[in-house]
Amino acid sequence: MSEDLVNSVFLGIGSNLGNKIRNIEKTKFNLVMSNIKILKCSSYYESLSWPNADNPKFINIVLEIDTNFTPQELIKKCKEIEKKLGRKNLPKNSPRKCDIDIIDFRKKKTVGEVILPHPRMDTRNFVLLPLFEINKNWVHPILNVNIRKLISSLSDSDIRSIKQI
What we know:
CATH architecture: 2-Layer Sandwich
Helix content: 25-40%
Largest sheet: 6 strands, antiparallel
Low-confidence stretches: none
Mean pLDDT: 93
Shape: globular
Strand content: 15-25%
Structural class: alpha+beta
CATH topology: Alpha-Beta Plaits
Oligomer: single chain
CATH class: Alpha Beta
CATH superfamily: 7,8-Dihydro-6-hydroxymethylpterin-pyrophosphokinase HPPK
Order of helices and strands: HEHEEEHEHHHE
C-alpha cells in the first residue's frame, strides 16, 4: 500500500435543504478556516434521500483532506461546522443543510465515539461514486475490497438513481 493511501483522510459532505451547493461550499470554507487542507474534491452528485426517498434529494461530495486533528477532534470540528451552518438536533436521517461524515481516516479501524471506517459507506452510492472519482485505488480497510468491486455490488437502481451534476 502506498504511503499516500495510508495517510489519506476522506470526508463525505451532503446537503438536502436550502441552497445545497452553497451549503457544501460554506462547509468546505469552514473546514479550510479550521486548518483542514482540501487535497481533492469530487464533483457534485445528486441522489435520493436515504432512507426516505420522499425527503428532498441530496447533493453530496467527497473530499480528500489533510489534517493534524485526531479522528475525535475532527468529528468534533465537523459537528461544530454542521451546527454553525444550521443543523438542528432532529431525528436521525432528517433533512439537513449540512452533514459531514468521516469516511476513512488513514485506514484506521475504530469503534466507540468515532466508528472508522464509516460503518455503512460500502453500500452507499453517494459515497462510493464520488470517492471513486478522486481515488480509483481506494480499498476498504476492514473488508479489504477495492472500490470498483464495492461499486459493482451496488444494485442497478442504486446506480441509476444517482447522477453527477
